[in-house]
Amino acid sequence: MNRTVKSFVFFMACVVMVASVASSALAFDTISGKTTGEIRQESYRALNELLRNSPLAAKLAQKAVAILVFPKVYRAGFIVGGQYGQGVLFRNGRINGYYSTIGGSYGLQVGGQSFGYAMFFMTEKSLEYLDMSDGWEIGTGPTVVVVDHGMSGSLSTTKALADVYTFFFNQKGLMAGLGLQGNKITRID
Fold it and tell me: What does the DSSP 8-state code read for residue 63?
């Protein structure tokens, strides 16, 4: 076999491996062995901790139409990677649905990690897009801005013009970089 064919075969083997791991997690239970009560409790705890530790997140929460919280997302990869997590959409302080996030990636990567993230939907239109799309792929539709520590000091709620603001938290493990591009968010209840 020539080098191109070997690379393609290796790539396809990695894709099949990641797909089988992801489908096994989904087939085990639509909410991956956790009860909705456990997901709800973890999501409440994660959101409360984020709001306590980030003044900007607390201010955005007051103006947000809804907040989608994924308290723990698991990510692993070796050239081909995947990630999966579950969370809750809160609207007016109440649960408005359960969601999953799943994603894949390809490139120079190795390792594993867990992290959480919260998405603050600032407009009805952005929330409608989440509801109307049968699985929202981040990177299409509403504008998503990832808030990092540097930005959180300069962004005020009066300058907040994006549709969705995202905060990452509780990152653990060894894997470089965090991103949402290529993630798909789907309602699971």
Answer: H
